[in-house]
Structure to design on (366 residues):
């Protein structure tokens, strides 16, 4: 995990040593065997989080440590006063990319990054009462000013009508077009996160009487789910037909194993080599990245002139919304999509449907 300790006290030096790890920065490793974490164990703990989370947390921790250096404060362990001052700093200092202070959800993530950093280093969580009060006041101020940042941004749900519009102009005679259609329809049918989708291998897809069974590893809940992919009523948006066509195209190109979703260049070449300054980059097998998959979804939505905030998460949210609107049980939706029991995120998606369908205004005689 990226990040470093801003200040090491004399007491720390007595019973600890600084181990310089080129991949993580300087980490505090205690010589007391009961409190010792090897660099390998630190790396294993870090690997338990999604790659995107690790990157975001690493950046947050680096910024926090740099601010502590500048302010003459200790980053780990941090006092409650330090946390409150830091959160207030985040609410007023513009970020370079947006020229605005961070939004509440971004600050929440940064707070989680620092509190989890403490736990990884063997310290209790810092007192967050003051920091939480500062953040609550910031939320109130944004809401009263009608600022867009007052509400957390959510990906627009890709529902079947939007998916039809996204795929209508896709040229499915090309390998890229077949891949994109299969990617969108399978992503929706499995409610997959883009990282889960690109992790699929051809071997995870098994043809059955009902269509396909697709087994995904849901990293956030640390479970495999086997999703039944059924025939659709519309051939243009049938995930079974789209997947079968794409698998046949892969086989014709000589690919019958390895990653399911692979890079295709503008000349429709499969898994072309990528280089930067003469050095080979990217997965040598041609596996797509989560970022590239998200770009495909966004690009298709923009090309279809669909309004909204489109991202790789649009398919996952669309599945939850459409399934709930069709009357499916929340527990079955959660199991199919790999959500944790009682997931607040899933509840929020289904609230979009339930707030109308189950409104107390229904049937009261207005």
């Amino acid at each position: 995990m990226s990040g470093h300790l801003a200040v090491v006290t004399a007491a720390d030096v007595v019973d600890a040593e600084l181990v310089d790890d080129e991949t993580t920065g300087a980490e505090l490793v205690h010589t007391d065997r009961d409190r010792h974490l090897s660099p390998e164990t630190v790396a294993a703990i870090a690997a338990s989080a999604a790659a995107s989370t690790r990157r975001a947390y690493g950046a947050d921790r680096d910024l926090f440590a740099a601010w502590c250096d500048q302010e003459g404060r200790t980053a780990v362990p941090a006092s409650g006063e330090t946390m409150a001052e830091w959160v207030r700093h985040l609410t007023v200092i513009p970020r370079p990319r947006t020229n605005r202070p961070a939004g509440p959800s971004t600050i929440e993530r940064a707070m989680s990054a620092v509190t989890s950093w403490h736990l990884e280093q063997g310290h209790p969580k810092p007192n967050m009462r003051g920091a939480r009060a500062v953040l609550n006041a910031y939320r109130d101020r944004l809401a009263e000013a009608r600022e867009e940042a007052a509400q957390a941004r959510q990906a627009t749900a890709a529902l079947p009508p939007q998916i039809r519009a996204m795929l209508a102009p896709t040229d499915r005679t090309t390998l890229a077009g077949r891949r994109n259609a299969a990617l969108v329809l399978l992503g929706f049918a499995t409610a997959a996160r883009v990282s889960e989708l690109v992790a699929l291998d051809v071997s995870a897809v098994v043809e059955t009487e009902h269509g396909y069974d697709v087994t995904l590893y849901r990293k956030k809940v640390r479970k495999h789910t086997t999703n039944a992919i059924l025939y659709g009523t519309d051939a243009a948006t049938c995930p079974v037909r789209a997947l079968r066509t794409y698998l046949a195209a892969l086989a014709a190109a000589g690919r019958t194993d390895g990653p399911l979703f692979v890079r295709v260049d503008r000349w429709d070449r499969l898994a072309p080599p990528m280089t930067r300054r003469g050095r080979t980059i990217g997965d040598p097998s041609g596996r797509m990245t989560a970022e590239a998959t998200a770009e495909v979804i966004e690009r298709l939505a923009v090309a279809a002139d669909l309004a909204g905030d489109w991202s790789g998460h649009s398919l996952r949210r669309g599945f939850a919304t459409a399934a709930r609107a069709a009357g499916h049980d929340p527990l079955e939706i959660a199991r199919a999509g790999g959500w944790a029991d009682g997931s607040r995120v899933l509840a929020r998606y289904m609230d979009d449907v339930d707030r109308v369908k189950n409104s107390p205004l229904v049937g009261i005689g207005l």
